[in-house]
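ok so I'm stuck.
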Amino acid sequence: MAYRTASPSCLIEEYLSNYINRVISYHMERIKIHQVDAFTDTLFSGNPAAVCVIDEWLDAALMQDIAAENNLAETAFLVPGQSHYEIRWFTPTVEVDLCGHATLASALVLFDCYGLTGDHVQFHSPRSGLLAVRKEGDMLFLDFPTDNLTRVDHGVSEFSSCIGIKPIEVYKGKTDYIAVVQSEADVRTIQPNFQAISRLDARGLIVTAPGDEVDFVSRFFAPQSGVPEDPVTGSAHTSLTPLWSTKLGKTDMSAKQLSARGGALSCRNRQSRCHIGGHARLYLVGEINTR
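replied:
not stuck anymore, here's the structure
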């Protein structure tokens, strides 16, 4: 019986085809990930966020699994478009409407790791519309919609049970409640009742007061969103900026978030838009294996 053997050219074609398929499969199963400390110029402080730039949207359940595995306050996913990047944000438990620090982190990754030129990058969120980040020297400024606040005149005792002291005022924004207290010391020393906070019909609770060395300070709690205390919350400052701008009679303000990691922000009230600035530092670059 005679046997036919494959020609050398056929063997090379088969090898190349198998190699290309393995490379494609490898890249489909692995996603590049960047981790950035936002609203700080020092590593191991500020708010860490993960950023994944992908060619097309993954299944929402997979993105939620990745965010849960990362176990950071936020993981941002970006898909390049013609004139902007589509962006979505996930906590370890839910997809959220808006996240400032992960958007700041995303801009740093695009500028520093993906060679984005110029001083401006535009994002589009399916939940929050057009957003932008502008580079000014060594700082990045979010350009976000200003929140609309409503004074809450009933049920203040409910907020007392959340933070252990009675607020001076309570407001409700698009996604969060804001409890205004007397002093920076009150903000620093409150003992949050996470069970009570988790019952609020909101993404979370902001606690704020005038600052001793900055214009205002805050802390942010969102156990109902899988984030007991967020280190630095850019989106919360879309509510805090118009609130303190009115109270202080200023359009440009300095702010600190008084979490254990801490963070510094520069806030500008521009009527329908807020410009929220800070530094950011790249911590790591790696790959996620999704198989």
